Amino acid sequence: MTTTSVTVQSHPVDPSVDHLIQQIVAGPDTSATCSTDLAVGPWEIDRDPGYGPGASMGDVIPTGAPRQGELPAEYREADDEALDARIRAAKKALGERVVVLGHFYQRDEVVTHADYVGDSFQLANAALEHPDAEAIVFCGVHFMAETADLLSGPEQAVILPNLAAGCSMADMADIDQVEECWEQLEEVYGDMTAADADGRVPVVPVTYMNSSAAIKGFVGRHGGIVCTSSNARTVLEWAFQRGRRVLFFPDQHLGRNTAKAMGVPLDRMPMWNPNRPLGGTDARTLADAEVILWHGFCSVHRRFTVDQIAKARAEHPGVRVIVHPECPMPVVDAADESGSTDYIRKAIAAATEPTTFAIGTEINLVQRLAAEHPQHTIFCLDPVVCPCSTMYRIHPGYLAWTLEGLVAGEVRNRITVTPDVADPARVALERMLAAKPPAS
Fold it and tell me: Reduced to 3 states, what is the DSSP secondary structure of residue 384?
């Protein structure tokens, strides 16, 4: 098989993926990147439709996806030090009026200014802890800002620094496709509200947190629930208590990996392709189904392969391989462990002896973990530096622009969810919050 050498950086590790990409493009670093366009400011990309350079650059963006207006020149032309100083000054001026949330996958130059760092669910909870804050600046992607708006107070403004920071996985299940899927399933299963002798309806819809507010609203209206990568098993157990089968979207891999670990046979997990009649399957297959998987995926986690794991094991005997459950099933099966971003962080923090870790998740988190734990050797399974396209659209320039707007009394890039969507979406989120996984 053809392999690519994995270069493990010597300690101490620079946590900045931007610095690494700049060095690759300039020549001092011999590593590879999936796109040299990652070295330019995202404002150079915002003028064009698409997800931008990075893991999702080959994905088709929906028509009408949000676009970011031009960032003023003073922010485009400022260097890192100047932007850092402006952000700190704006935060100081705003004080407790603003809370800055930073996702694990954000570039280090943004994370350094976050009041809280976590995954989408942890950050939504962090927003709940500050009901008196006038503004919540969410350094993440669009569906995360929507969720924060759902859970925050009506008078609080949720801001996404760059409107072009969407999510290709979330976009793979739009509300029209899901509604059409539900109608076709009704033709197969009959009345979707009719319970059997055990009190179970034909289908319970389950959506991953990585979905639009409209999808969460759909789930809430149809007796379903939201899940995270941390509580997906608990949520599926909840759904199977109420339904004979589950419609799981938008990420097929999280659904498959979770259901397989619960003992659901693979032949009882048909794929639903929204671009084909009856999802590309048939009524008999659907009758036998236990989990109907939506044809969606995370382009970051789809990059990881079994060959990469084999290469890591060959070059680093005793390596501990941990991957995210959004990775394809063969990758999860070949790894030593799989778990959410928080699971990965905690597993590394709990290692008492110097250990070599090969991690299958987004490079910004991996690079930061390597810098935080110099006693370990930590590297990304994918030797090609290829961050999440849309997380990388948040740049310190946009953060400075939104914060200085607040100082001037102007709310820029506010994200709001309309009440007709927000009310049922909150129901689905509340069900998720009540479905707590057992303590480890």
Answer: strand
Grouping H, G, I as helix, E, B as strand and the rest as coil, residue 390 is coil
Provide CB contacts within 8 A for 145, sequence distance 6+: 138, 158, 159, 160, 415
Residue 413, token pair as written in the block: 């890039």
Using only C-alpha atoms, the chain has a radius of gyration, in whole angstroms, of 22
> Each residue of 50-63: pLDDT tens digit?
999 999 999 999 99
How far apart CA 314 and CA 358 sit, in angstroms, is 12
Structure tokens that stand for 68 in this block: 């970011």
Strand partners, 225: 206
Say how far apart CA 16 and CA 109 lie, in whole Å.
7
**What span, in angstroms and rounded, lies between the C-alpha atoms of 188 and 198?**
20
To the nearest 5 percent, what fractions of the chain are helix, strand and coil?
45, 15, 45
Amino acid at 351: A
CA distances from 402 to 97, 99, 161, 168, 413 (A): 14, 12, 6, 24, 8
pTM (2 d.p.): 0.94
**Contact present, 203 and 245 (Cβ < 8 Å):** yes
Please, which pLDDT band fits residue 9 given cuts at 50, 70 and 90?
Answer: very low
How far from 164 is each of 36, 37, 276, 300, 365, CA to CA, in Å?
19, 16, 29, 17, 21
* 204 DSSP β-pair partners: 246
Q: Where are the alpha helices (DSSP H) in 61-138?
A: 73-76, 80-94, 108-111, 120-128
